[in-house]
Write a structure and sequence with these properties.
By secondary structure, the protein is an alpha+beta fold. It folds into two domains: 35 residues, no CATH class; 61 residues, no CATH class. Helices cover 20% and strands 22% of the residues. It has one helix and four strands; from the N terminus they run αββββ. It is flat, with a radius of gyration of 19 Å.
Length: 107
């Protein structure tokens, strides 16, 4: 099985000019976001067999979170289990188990 690695072609040699009048602020943000987009899924998921998303990027304390996950088995087939137990880690380091339920007709 072959996997494609993300590739970026930046068709300019003037990215260094973004530092003018603002220092590294924009330059660092740009390259940081590029790395995050290209490698982020590998850094967060630890596996290409799992993809986890939430409905929003930020939440308030106590606000309900909607989580969507696409999960595959060891042989890269979509999981067919009705429920999968996941560990949820809060920003304060505490953990708890949550049940992810299959969505009928989901991918």
């Amino acid at each position: 099985m072959t996997f494609l690695n993300p590739i970026l072609l930046l068709g300019t040699d003037n990215a260094w000019r973004w530092r003018r009048h603002v220092g590294d602020r924009l330059h660092t943000r740009f390259w940081g976001q590029i790395i995050q987009r290209l490698a982020g899924s590998r850094l967060v998921e630890h596996s290409r067999r799992a993809s986890v998303q939430t409905d929003k990027r930020r939440y308030r304390p106590g606000e309900q979170i909607s989580i969507q996950a696409t999960l595959h088995s060891d042989d890269w087939q979509p999981l067919t289990q009705e429920t999968v137990i996941a560990n949820l880690r809060s920003g304060d380091g505490s953990e708890r188990e949550i049940a992810l339920r299959a969505v009928p007709g989901g991918k």
